[in-house]
Amino acid sequence: RMETDCNPMEMPNNTGFEEDPDYGDFEGTDVKDMRLEAEAVVNDVLFAVSNMFVSKTLPCAEDVAYINVETRERNRYCLELTEAGLRVVAYDFDQTDDRLQTPYHETVYSLLDSLSPAYREVFGNALLQRLEALKKESQS
């Protein structure tokens, strides 16, 4: 089953941060926790890459998270996720290189599409299978 990007409007109001003393400063403010956003991004496209996970080494904050991804071509990247979008910040896991000036991508799909032909193929095939399944459902 394919999932779409997480819609913040569908998120439950009670996220559990209210009970957590570490998140006391955020009470009543409308912040988007980038770690949660990063987990949603990983869950969306994990099937189409070799490995992908939110970095446990680099600091996550309410405005930034880092995602490690290994493409099916065995290339490793560290991605930065912010309100501006996603971009490559290093060519290895858990690294950032300030000299890299890579463009932001609005979605993880367009970023991976630009990095990995194998991702494009796997994602396209999954999309075709889903369309075929929908077609069969509508015919029955």
TrEMBL record:
<comment type="similarity">
    <text>Belongs to the GSKIP family.</text>
</comment>
<dbReference type="GO" id="GO:0060828">
    <property type="term" value="P:regulation of canonical Wnt signaling pathway"/>
</dbReference>
<dbReference type="GO" id="GO:0051018">
    <property type="term" value="F:protein kinase A binding"/>
</dbReference>
<feature type="domain" description="GSKIP">
    <location>
        <begin position="34"/>
        <end position="134"/>
    </location>
</feature>
<dbReference type="InterPro" id="IPR023231">
    <property type="entry name" value="GSKIP_dom_sf"/>
</dbReference>
<dbReference type="InterPro" id="IPR037395">
    <property type="entry name" value="GSKIP"/>
</dbReference>
<dbReference type="GO" id="GO:0019207">
    <property type="term" value="F:kinase regulator activity"/>
</dbReference>
<dbReference type="InterPro" id="IPR007967">
    <property type="entry name" value="GSKIP_dom"/>
</dbReference>
<feature type="region of interest" description="Disordered">
    <location>
        <begin position="1"/>
        <end position="23"/>
    </location>
</feature>
<dbReference type="Pfam" id="PF05303">
    <property type="entry name" value="GSKIP_dom"/>
</dbReference>
<protein>
    <submittedName>
        <fullName>GSKIP protein</fullName>
    </submittedName>
</protein>
<dbReference type="GO" id="GO:0005737">
    <property type="term" value="C:cytoplasm"/>
</dbReference>
